[in-house]
Amino acid sequence: MNEIVADIFSATHTPYQVVLARLSGAILLGALIGVERERRQRPAGLRTHILVSLASAVFAILAIESVHMASLSGPEVRIDPIRVLEAVTAGVAFLAAGMIVFSRGEVRGLTTGAGMWLAGAVGLAIGFGFWWIAAFAAFASLVVLLVLGRLEVALDWKSPDEFAGTADGQRGDAETPASDDERK
């Protein structure tokens, strides 16, 4: 039993307080990106963006910790944290691609997919300790989603219905209404 307790509370290279701060930051900034998508009742909303950001931060922290694990040292072991960036980027891109639909001659869900991809990048940035990069990217996403969307309407590049996602009379993304699970 003592071995189990020792394993649970084993020392990490990154102090626990820093790990918890990074995970909390990933949750907060993921929410910042997802709140606009949730408000517009898109299929990938607040929870999805939080989870993508949080998972990405966890993978980044694990990459950092794995480099410093004594059990993973030696000439036969090669650890490359950059592979984590590649794997998370590919995994989130796969999820984001699922949001993009071509229907009735229009591409839908591209902004939501891009937001998910950005949430993954923000989570990675925080997980690796690049707080300012993550914060700037998350706040810039709000500007893009809120301000530029309204600017497109003001310049008559999009109709108010297109901006609101109601061009076909539905609320939210026309290709897929938000599921009951996503709204709860």
Automatic annotation (TrEMBL):
Name the UniProt record assigns to this protein: Protein MgtC
Homology family: Belongs to the MgtC/SapB family.
Transmembrane segments: 16-34, 46-64, 84-103, 115-148
GO cellular component: plasma membrane
Compartments, as annotated in UniProt: Cell inner membrane; Cell membrane
Keywords: Cell inner membrane, Cell membrane, Membrane, Transmembrane, Transmembrane helix
Membrane topology term: Multi-pass membrane protein
Region Disordered, annotated ranges: 161-184
Segments of skewed composition (Basic and acidic residues): 170-184
